[in-house]
Structures are given as structure tokens and as C-alpha cells.
Design a protein that fits this description.
two-stranded antiparallel sheet; globular; alpha/beta; 9 helices; 23% strand; single chain
Length: 251
């Protein structure tokens, strides 16, 4: 009897056993958690704030609704949603990584955001929430780190209310070849050096650059969302396609 060959997936450009990825990604985010916000500003020259503001604008979130900020990290979107839903609504900041969740909790509490926000450590592939529960789900720069993206999208679809929407903000494929080449140079030569200088960790930022290249492009992700059950899926290219915001509805 032959041994069963383990299922594989990618960790950046490396091929690894599928059951190893979650712990390897966890190590990356344990390492970068304390410098995450600073590195976001440095890596994107502050433009990530504009991308996130656009995501909020496309969310349609209003007073009294329930929102899931999945892979919510240090809580940038949660902070905005907390104000939008008000006292009668609720926001759950969920992240698989306890270090990131701790940073998010401390940051939001320090800024006075309490009451309508809960914190849940959760795997996107198996969300611990009831069916048809949330009015809106966002996942910002997190989907590319998920081992089984199709399973995660189906899980999000399950917990979304009919009439609700999913917003996926993620790095994508630049539209113009010159921009693509400049982006490669920045990602693989400059970004790891910034990571070394600021976070004392070049390898984690090398992985993050590689994970962006392995993430599905705009059209592929649109098809994946449709296959998971979402209707009227569309996307917006931001900053020349370096980032894309995908939006899908549950009808």
C-alpha cells in the first residue's frame, strides 16, 4: 500500500504541504504585528488609507447593521464601521492571528471605540457565525493568505444575509506593463530592505511580496466569487490595478 501524497499549496513562491500553511502564515504575522501599521504607511506611501476609504464608501453600511471585518488586523475598517452602525449596530473584528487581534483591540480601545465592537479569533474557511447573519463582510489584504480561498468565500457567503454584500480589498495585477515592472522592482528589492530596517524582518516582507504575485488576478477572483454563490460581482481597479476592490452580493 503506497503512502498518500499530501495536498500542496503555495507559501509565496514555495510549494508546501497544505496543512503547513496556516502555521507558517501565522509566524509571519506574529513577527510583523507590532510594526504593521507603520509598515503599511511606509509600503504604500499612505495610499492604503485611500483604498480603505473607498471600500467604506462602497459598503453601503448604515445604522443598526451587523458588519464582519474579516482578517481585520489592527482595525482600520472596524473603526469606521463602528461609527457608521452606531449603538444599535455591531461590528466583529475577526482575525486568525491572535497577535494581530491583540494589536487591533488595544488600538481601538485606546481610541475610545468600545461597546459595539467584538473581537473573535476565527479562520475564514470555517467562520463561527450563524447563517444569514451579517449585512456586510469585508476582507482587506487577507484573502491572499488564506489556504483554501474557495472554501473561505463559500463560508463568507453562508454567513451573509440575503441582500448583503462582500467586499474584498486585495493586491492584484497592475494594468500596464511598465507599472508592473516598476512594482516588481519595488516589491522584491526595496520592500524587504524596508522590512529589515523598520521591523527587523526582511523574510516576512519577501513572503508578502511573493504572496501578492501568487494571488488570483482580477478576472479570476471575480469568477471565484461567482462560483461561491455571489451575484453581480464587479471590481474596481485602484492605483493602476496594484490593488482591486471586488464586490459581490447575496440575493
Amino acid at each position: 500500500m503506497t503512502d498518500q501524497i499530501p495536498e500542496t499549496t503555495h507559501f509565496g513562491f514555495r510549494t508546501i504541504a497544505k496543512d503547513e500553511k496556516e502555521s507558517m502564515v501565522a509566524e509571519v504575522f506574529h513577527s510583523v504585528a507590532s510594526k504593521y501599521d507603520l509598515m503599511n504607511d511606509l509600503m504604500s506611501f499612505g495610499i492604503h488609507r485611500i483604498w480603505k476609504r473607498f471600500t467604506i464608501d462602497c459598503s453601503g453600511v448604515r445604522r443598526g447593521q451587523k458588519v464582519l471585518d474579516l482578517a481585520g488586523g489592527t482595525g482600520d475598517l472596524t473603526a469606521k464601521f463602528s461609527r457608521l452602525v452606531g449603538e444599535t449596530g455591531s461590528v466583529i473584528l475577526a482575525d486568525i492571528n491572535d497577535s494581530m487581534l491583540k494589536m487591533g483591540r488595544e488600538k481601538l480601545r485606546d481610541s475610545g471605540i468600545v461597546g459595539n465592537v467584538r473581537y473573535v479569533q476565527a479562520n475564514a474557511e470555517e467562520l463561527p457565525f450563524p447563517d444569514n447573519y451579517f449585512d456586510c463582510i469585508t476582507i482587506s489584504f487577507g484573502l491572499r493568505n488564506v489556504t483554501d480561498k474557495d472554501k473561505a468565500l463559500r463560508s463568507m457567503f453562508r454567513v451573509l444575509k440575503p441582500g448583503g454584500r462582500l467586499l474584498v480589498l486585495e493586491f492584484s495585477k497592475p494594468l500596464l506593463d511598465p507599472l508592473n515592472k516598476a512594482y516588481d522592482t519595488y516589491s522584491f528589492h526595496i520592500l524587504p530592505k524596508i522590512g529589515e530596517l523598520v521591523a527587523n524582518d526582511s523574510e516576512s516582507y519577501r513572503y508578502l511580496a511573493e504572496s501578492i504575485r501568487m494571488h488570483p488576478d482580477q478576472e479570476t477572483l471575480k469568477e471565484m466569487m461567482s462560483d461561491a454563490g455571489f451575484d453581480s460581482v464587479s471590481y474596481y481597479n485602484l492605483t493602476g490595478g496594484i490593488v482591486a476592490l471586488h464586490r459581490g452580493f447575496k440575493f
